[in-house]
Amino acid sequence: MVLKESEKQSVTKEEIIDFIRPQFAKWWLPDDVVFMRELPKTSVGKFLKRALREQLESFYAKS
């Protein structure tokens, strides 16, 4: 199902962490959540980890 831009609901980082908090130990919870429009994938559908690292390099440099 594809939602129109006006029908999409926005979710915050805090809501995602609060949702998974009861299911995981405290030290397993993520420090941060990064929203991306699209994840880079290979032609067979695997995640391109190298491309993800390159895209997020500046994000981690700030932290």
TrEMBL record:
Residues 2-46 form the AMP-binding enzyme C-terminal domain. Pfam families: AMP-binding_C. InterPro entries: AMP-bd_C, AMP-bd_C_sf. Signal peptide: none annotated. It comes from the Bacteria. This is Fatty-acyl-CoA synthase. It comes from Alteribacillus bidgolensis. The lineage of its organism: Bacteria, Bacillati, Bacillota, Bacilli, Bacillales.
